[in-house]
Structure formats: C-alpha cells, structure tokens
Amino acid sequence: YSSSDISDHISVTVRDALNQALDEELERDERVFLLGEEVAQYDGAYKVSRGLWKKYGDKRIIDTPITEMGFAGIAVGAAMAGLRPICEFMTFNFSMQAIDQVINSAAKTYYMSAGLQPVPIVFRGPNGASAGVAAQHSQCFAAWYGHCPGLKVVSPWSAEDAKGLLKSAIRDDNPVVFLENELMYGVPFEMSEEAQSKDFLLPIGKAKIERQGNHVTLVSHSRMVSLCLDAAAVLAKEGIECEVINMRTIRPLDAEAIETSVMKTNHLITVEGGWPQFGVGAEILARIMEGPAFNFLDAPAVRVTGVDIPMPYAKILEDNSIPQIKDIIFSVKKTLNV
Amino acid sequence: MRKMLTIISNVLRGSASRNGAELVSEKCDLHKLEEGPPLQAVLTREEGLQYYRTMQTIRRMELKADQLYKQKIIRGFCHLYDGQEACAVGIETGINLSDHLITAYRAHGYTLTRGGTVREIMAELTGRRGGIAKGKGGSMHMYTKHFYGGNGIVGAQVPLGAGVALACKYLGNNEICVCLYGDGAANQGQIFETYNMASLWKLPCIFICENNKYGMGTSVERAAASTDYYKRGDFIPGLRLDGMDVLCVREATKFAAEHCRSGKGPILMELQTYRYHGHSMSDPGVSYRTREEIQEVRSKSDPISMLKDRMLSNNMASVEELKEIDVEVRKEIEDAAQFATTDPEPPLDDLCNHIFYNDPPMEVRGTNPWTKLKSVS
C-alpha cells in the first residue's frame, strides 16, 4: 500500500472549486476584480463568491445594479484600460441583454485593431437548464458564443475542471466565456493534490477522456458528462464499452481528441443539453464529416440533445425536455445496431 | 481670477503685443452646477496657431476622404467630421495625452488629436497595410494609445468609457476618461445605465454629447422628448456650450477635468456643433435639412473661420502666416493621400492574425474544409 494520490484526494464541490480559483487569482494579481449582481455583500446569488467581499473589499468585489448591458460594457472598458475583470452574469440568459458588449466590444476588438487593443476579460455564470426555472431562465448559450471568433468558450464539468479552467481563463489575455452549471455547483468531486495547488491550471482547448472504451465515443460537456458516465456504467454491464470525452472547451474545439477516439471506436454520439439546431453537436458532426475520422465511421454519427422547445415548467415536462440516461443508452444501441 | 485676466488683457492690448489675448466666451448653460468655466481665458499666439493648424488638418483630411470616397478608393462606411473640428481640438487641449478618450464612429478627428498621423489614418480608410489598424479596422475602428476607437455600435462606447474611468480610479493614476456620444446615441438605455453606475461609483468620466442636431436623418426634435442633453444625466452635473468655439470647448473641458480629478465623480458636457456632410458618405445630407441652413452655419459659425477672425482681430497672426499654414496642411494631406493610394493592401497571410493576444499560433478554417489558414497573435 503506497501513500499514493488517493489519500491526498479531498472532496470538493464545484462551487468551492470555483470559489478557490477566484480567491487564488484575486490574491495573485491586483488587477483582477469581480463585478456582477449580488457578488459582494450577498456572497453571490449561488454563493460562488462567498467570502470574497469580506476578504477583498469594495474595490475588488463590486455589486452592480441590475443593468447587464451597462456593467458588461464597463467591464470590457476596464479590461481595455489594463485591468483584468471577471464579469458575472447571474445566469447566461441575462447575458443576452449585454451580448453586443461581449461580441462587438470584447471579442472583435483585438482583430479590428490589428493587435493594438487586447481585452483580457472573463464572463462567467451558470448556463443551461436548471430545475423548474422555466423557459426564460433555461437556455444553453454554448452554441451562440461558440460561434464567434475572438472568444474562447469554456464549459467545465468536474471540480478540477472548474478550478483549473477558471484560473486559466482569468490568466488568459483574451475574452473568455465561462459557462458554469447551477445543478453542478453542489456536486462533490475528488480533487487530487495537484489540483489543490495554487498554480493548478488546465489548458483551454484540450478535451479529457473521462472513461476509456472501444465500442462507441460519447462526446459531451458540462453536466451531460455525468449522464454519459452513468449511461456508460449501465451499458458496461451489457458488454458495451463507451469512451466518454469531456470537451472542457467549446471553442477552440478539440477536434483532434474526438477524431482520435472515433478512429478507434468507429461510432460517435454527441450529448448536450442545448437545442439541436446549429448546436455544439451539429458542429462536431460536421467536423467529423470533413475530417479524417469520417472513413472510420461504421454508422452515421448522431446527436443527443435537448428537445427543440422552450423549456416547460412542470416537472414531468421538464424532465422530458432534456436528455436522460435512457436516451443515451437508446441512442448507443441504435448506433451499434444492438 | 477674472480681474487678473482683465489686467493681462489691457496690458496686452496696450502694447499691441502678438503674444496672446484674453478672449471672452459666452456663458455656458449649467445644470446642477453653482459655477461654470471661466468666461474669459487667455489664448497665446502659439496656442492659436496650433489650434488653427490642427483644425485645418482635420478639415482638409476629411475633405480629401470625401474625394477619395467618390473615386471609390475608400469604401464602406465613412462618417466625416468637417464642421465639428473645434470639439476634437478643444477637448484635447483641455486634457493630457495621458488621459483617455473614446468616441463613436465619427472618429477620424479624434484619431488625429490622440496621436495618430494623417498618413496612417488615410491609409486605414483606403484599407492598406500602412493603415493605423493595418487595414483591418477601417473608418470606424482606429486606435492609438489611450484612445479606444472608433466604435461602430451606437452607444456601446459609453459603458466602455466608464469602464476605462473605473480603471483610472482603481489604479489611482489621476487620469480621466472622456467619453463621447452624439445626439442620436443620447437616447440609448445603456447610456443611462452608465450614468447611474458612474455616479454611484464616482468614476472620473467626462460624458460629452456632440449635438450636431441630427441623428442620421432624424432631427433632435423628432428623436428626443428632451433635447436638453446636458440635463439628461439628471443627478450628474452638466453644462451646455458652443461647440464651434474652440476656446469655449477647451475651458469647459479643463473645468470638467478638474471636477473629475478632484473626486467629485462624472460630469456631462453638451457641445452644440454641426456637421457639413451628411451622416455618412451615402447620405447627401439635404433631404432632412436645407442647404440654406448648412450655408448659414458655414458663413456665421465655422470653427476655423471664427478662430482665424479672432486671431486676426487681436493681432495674433497675419493673413500671410495663416495662409502659409494652409499651404503646409494641404501638402501634408496630399502626401498622405499619395501614400494612402499607393501603399499596398495587407498581405493575405495577415487575414487570420490578431484573433487572440499572447497565444501560440493556431489554425483557422478557411472557406472550405481543405483550406487551413495560419493565425498568429
């Protein structure tokens, strides 16, 4: 028995991992600051910024009025002038009010200025479906932001993802859209000793293979990774071994990781919470068609997605609006023709 | 203070000196301010000549751009600033180069006053590699140090400017941000959001509304329930003044800058000005206003003529001197235009560069799956 990693692992929720990342980066660099609704004195609408205002004060942790377009613009301006803001949207649904500042003021400026004006900013907050919050509060914006050059778009799943990727996002000199998930905030994960360090960074743009397998590749991001792993566990009992890829980053997309896997398993299913049309899965499938992995497919690659409707409220309806484990299992079996 | 200025004036007039003159401005309209900028200010000969030269440079540069646009050498959007020169020049003389400034798309004048050269501005308009943004930005996206453009989305620059001011306060550098917008943009919601936060957080931000009476083809009366733009900041103190008088603009800007630097928070200035051209080169500018109106402004309120008359009548310069400046300016513009029309276009391998800053080189998909293009920071 070696005193290996396992005994140094601790259990950390995604929320606490994000909190650690924020704390560490605020401490490391004076120019980093956080602004958004309720981030300071309320400790964060979802408690992600708990304790930070008490530690860093009014200058570094700023409560804003409910004026997304205004404060997102202010955050972008501050980034242009040399600070490193973290702009929180209480949920990404509200970012629609500010989306012009994210795209036209942040994402495009370095290009339009031919390299004169960088914009080191992070936009973060919960994205996608929650529980019972209905149509206006449940949209997934991965595809919308993932569409735009000049942005990096990150979508962590685990606590390690959350911490390592948020730290990288804050240290990145470019606009990063950081898509969290409210239902994942309270979920605990084992965090390795390495991940507990103040300099633990994960590279933006690299996917991770969460589970090795030979029969089918499941590609997913954020909360849906949990469902893929759960489906894989069920399928394993029937002798079907799924390879589960956690994208970690939406843009730039790690197409190579997916292609390598598909060339091994010959079958591909993407799983996302967002709507199907023009979505993350649609992009992955298009890239597979256009790339070297196409010739290795033994069946059409398919997508498992949210249902193409605004999110309903009633639990039975909501449950049937997003992918369930059974949907993944069903799709795997169809793809493998078993 | 005023008494002292009057004495200087008498001395100067008495000695028929050409070193400077005390000039009287019109009183500003004030909103939530006890006092405004001084009514009298000293203009030295050097200052006068410099303001004249800069305004004339902007004027001739914009007229040359008009010509090049009509020859189809400049394409896309081109929003010209002729008529409004006193605003850009007056503002710059009221702040330091280390201060910050942001404006909307009618930005060529500001690009110059903030340190850009006529050559690189014109070459940007013609889309050449020698352009201030290497040809990748165009008319609306020019940048220099502490000048954040050139912004195409009406009103979006205002929160950005307040953000720059936030950085100034955060860093404690005693710098301020001048944040410009037009009468059209003045009705944008995000501007009111910005007024609120700038005021709450006492950001060192001078909001300046360049009221040229028309938002594209819509006159101010048809767009705004209240055309007292200097009052629209409500809880933010404001002043309204003649934007065609470069000295007025300078003194008001100095006053506003002092207000901000002393930690009192934001302040709002409305400059009443006029553009001779239409909204852009696609707008003849005469369907919503009369040629008589335009002509009247040219003959009675032209900012360059006004400064010239003042300098001549105060014996601060001779007609010949000013003509000489005109000739020099014309030459500078000609040279710049020559450069702008002969400099090559950007190389194709610059197409995908400048997506990300400080990143390793990456691949960008071209128009088809077999085309992989290279992108460096």
From TrEMBL, chain A:
Primary site of residence: mitochondrion
UniProt GO BP: glucose metabolic process; pyruvate decarboxylation to acetyl-CoA
Keywords: Carbohydrate metabolism, Glucose metabolism, Metal-binding, Mitochondrion, Oxidoreductase, Potassium, Pyruvate, Thiamine pyrophosphate, Transit peptide
SMART domains: Transket_pyr (SM00861)
Cofactor(s), names only, from the UniProt record: thiamine diphosphate
Localization of this protein: Mitochondrion
CDD domains in the record: TPP_PYR_E1-PDHc-beta_like
Listed EC numbers: 1.2.4.1
GO CC entries: mitochondrion; pyruvate dehydrogenase complex
The organism's place on the tree of life at top rank: Eukaryota
Signal sequence, start to end: none
Reaction equation(s) it catalyzes: N(6)-[(R)-lipoyl]-L-lysyl-[protein] + pyruvate + H(+) = N(6)-[(R)-S(8)-acetyldihydrolipoyl]-L-lysyl-[protein] + CO2
Domain (Transketolase-like pyrimidine-binding): residue spans on this chain: 12-187
Gene Ontology MF term list: metal ion binding; pyruvate dehydrogenase (acetyl-transferring) activity
Subunit composition and interactions: Heterotetramer of two PDHA1 and two PDHB subunits. The heterotetramer interacts with DLAT, and is part of the multimeric pyruvate dehydrogenase complex that contains multiple copies of pyruvate dehydrogenase (E1), dihydrolipoamide acetyltransferase (DLAT, E2) and lipoamide dehydrogenase (DLD, E3). These subunits are bound to an inner core composed of about 48 DLAT and 12 PDHX molecules. Interacts with DLAT.
Function description: The pyruvate dehydrogenase complex catalyzes the overall conversion of pyruvate to acetyl-CoA and CO(2), and thereby links the glycolytic pathway to the tricarboxylic cycle. The pyruvate dehydrogenase complex catalyzes the overall conversion of pyruvate to acetyl-CoA and CO2.
Protein name: Pyruvate dehydrogenase E1 component subunit beta
UniProtKB/TrEMBL annotation, chain B:
Superkingdom of the source species: Eukaryota
A GO-annotated cellular component: mitochondrial matrix
Classification via InterPro entries: DH_E1, PDH_E1_Alpha_Subunit, Pyrv_DH_E1_asu_subgrp-y, THDP-binding
GO molecular function: metal ion binding; pyruvate dehydrogenase (acetyl-transferring) activity
Reaction equations catalysed: N(6)-[(R)-lipoyl]-L-lysyl-[protein] + pyruvate + H(+) = N(6)-[(R)-S(8)-acetyldihydrolipoyl]-L-lysyl-[protein] + CO2
Chain ranges of the Dehydrogenase E1 component domain: 53-347
Subcellular localization, as worded in the UniProt entry: Mitochondrion matrix
EC numbers, comma separated: 1.2.4.1
EC top class named in words: oxidoreductase
Listed GO biological process terms: glucose metabolic process; pyruvate decarboxylation to acetyl-CoA
Keywords tagged on the record: Carbohydrate metabolism, Glucose metabolism, Magnesium, Metal-binding, Mitochondrion, Oxidoreductase, Phosphoprotein, Pyruvate, Thiamine pyrophosphate, Transit peptide
UniProt cofactor(s): Mg(2+); thiamine diphosphate
Keyword check for Phosphoprotein: yes
Pfam families found in the cross-reference section: E1_dh
Signal peptide location: none
PANTHER family listed in its UniProt record: PYRUVATE DEHYDROGENASE E1 COMPONENT SUBUNIT ALPHA, PYRUVATE DEHYDROGENASE E1 COMPONENT, ALPHA SUBUNIT BACTERIAL AND ORGANELLAR
NCBIfam families: PDH_E1_alph_y
Functional summary from the UniProt entry: The pyruvate dehydrogenase complex catalyzes the overall conversion of pyruvate to acetyl-CoA and CO(2), and thereby links the glycolytic pathway to the tricarboxylic cycle.
Name of the protein this chain belongs to: Pyruvate dehydrogenase E1 component subunit alpha
Species per Swiss-Prot/TrEMBL record: Cyprinus carpio carpio
Source taxonomy: Eukaryota, Metazoa, Chordata, Craniata, Vertebrata
